[in-house]
Amino acid sequence: MTSLPLRIAVIGGGIGGLTAAVSLFQAGFAVDVYEQAPELTEVGGGINMAPNATRVLRGLGLGAGLDREGVRPLSTHQRRWQDGRTLQRAPLNPLCEELYGAPHMTLHRADLLAVIAAAFPAEHIHLGHRLVGLANKGCGAEAWFENGAHITADVLVGADGIHSAVRAALFGEEDPAFAGCVAYRGLVPAERVADLALELGSQSWVGPGGHLVHYFVSRGRLLNFVGWTEHDRWNREDWTDRATIARALAAFDGWHEQIRTIIAAAETCFIWALFDRDPLPRWTAGRATLLGDACHPMYPFMGQGAAMAIEDGAVLAACLRAFHDPAEALSHYERRRLPRVTRLQQMSRANKTRFHLPDGPAQQARDAEWARASDRAPDTLRWLYEFDAGVGGALGIDHKSSPTAPALIPDRDTQ
Ligand SMILES: Cc1cc2nc3c(=O)[nH]c(=O)nc-3n(C[C@H](O)[C@H](O)[C@H](O)COP(=O)(O)OP(=O)(O)OC[C@H]3O[C@@H](n4cnc5c(N)ncnc54)[C@H](O)[C@@H]3O)c2cc1C
């Protein structure tokens, strides 16, 4: 490290960008966040934070905030769309804490973002800054914003989501492809569904051409649901961002009464089209790199998109601390992260097919497999949940070597 800390510009103040900002700030860098929106907001309702993500957030000192705002689901329960039969059920808490030293949590996205933002100096978050151009400058990067502002930084991090302007500037424009799925998302005050006597857990209902997940958020005051259905094409003229409850109910016509009761009790319902990109071979060019959905958007069918963005930030901070040359640090960061996120992108895609099988032989084979080996059980997902985003795990550093002269060892099988 030189005597002056590296100046790092993070473009995008979503879950990925803000967590990276906190990780980098706590690692001693001079960090500024540039967010296009006039305020920090998170659209949509709930989010799962698996143990690999809560461990990083706790490491940043955010454990008390998570405990204050979040819910610790007791189990995850997969059920059949029509009759509600159990296909698999696995305990989550307190088992995750016992196995991985961190809980599995469900939170309202706005609560999660507020907890993360509280750990970063507000005066270094620049709202209303929409990046419109950037240039690599050998030993730094320059960026321009729609409001006329112009900045320079030693390192620039594009955390600006699936439609990333940083990605387009570094690697060319390419529109994401519609993934053939839309989601109906809603929040239900818990008292409206009290008669269902729902367990404090996550339930996932799978059926032909769709699935629906529900879990509690906001200290148990709200039940969040996301119901996916398949569609050939996305047409903005046909769909509005705010769906009617009647339309969501029609999409789940014939499904179990519990699901229909939950949808009908929602205050409002939003519709969300799923977009996708193929894995990128590179994230870094010169002093600029990417993070989160900007470089590895994934179907949310492993519940890991934001978790991967959170891990990215921790690994990026560890790499920038360990290597004197920022370009070398960025290239090491990219190498460490690519295999793991690519694996999750592929698994998430495969789950779209598996969750949406029409009733028939393939569905019966899937159900039999789930009954035999619970693929959602925390001990089955060891490779995913035990990820260590601290110095050892992030860098592949042999702990026995000197901390001031880290020796790099080949990729371990924790990816
Ligand atoms: C229905 C659904 C359910 C999901 N469930 C889960 C889950 O349970 N667990 C999980 O881990 N993940 C889940 N995900 C995935 C997760 O939501 C995303 O992976 C995560 O939010 C990505 O965070 P990000 O910060 O990379 O991008 P974003 O959240 O998209 O944030 C990007 C930010 O950049 C800003 N921005 C964009 N362009 C510019 C610009 N030009 N200049 C400045 N700022 C800009 C945006 O305003 C935004 O604030 C789910 C996704 C969906 C759709």
Task: Provide structural commentary.
- The protein has 13 helices and 18 strands.
- With 415 residues, it is of the alpha/beta class.
- The chain has an 8-stranded mixed beta sheet with strand order 5-4-13-14-15-12-17-16. Strands 7-2-1-11-18 form a 5-stranded parallel beta sheet, with helices on both faces.
- Strand 14 (210-217) and strand 15 form a beta hairpin.
- Helix 1 (15-26) runs parallel beside helix 5, helix 1 runs parallel beside helix 9 (305-322) and helix 2 crosses helix 9.
- Residues 397-415 have low confidence and may be disordered.
- The structure holds flavin-adenine dinucleotide (FAD).
- Flavin-adenine dinucleotide binds next to helix 1, strand 3 and helix 9.
Write a compact overview of the structure shown.
The chain has helices at residues 15-26, 51-59, 63-69, 95-100, 109-117, 165-171, 245-251, 257-264, 305-322, 326-355, 361-372, 382-385, 391-395, and strands at residues 7-11, 30-34, 46-49, 75-80, 86-91, 105-108, 125-126, 131-136, 141-145, 150-153, 155-158, 177-189, 202-207, 210-217, 222-230, 242-243, 269-276, 288-290. The protein has 415 residues and is of the alpha/beta class. The strands form four sheets. It has an eight-stranded mixed β-sheet with strand order 5-4-13-14-15-12-17-16. A five-stranded parallel β-sheet has the order 7-2-1-11-18, sandwiched between helices.
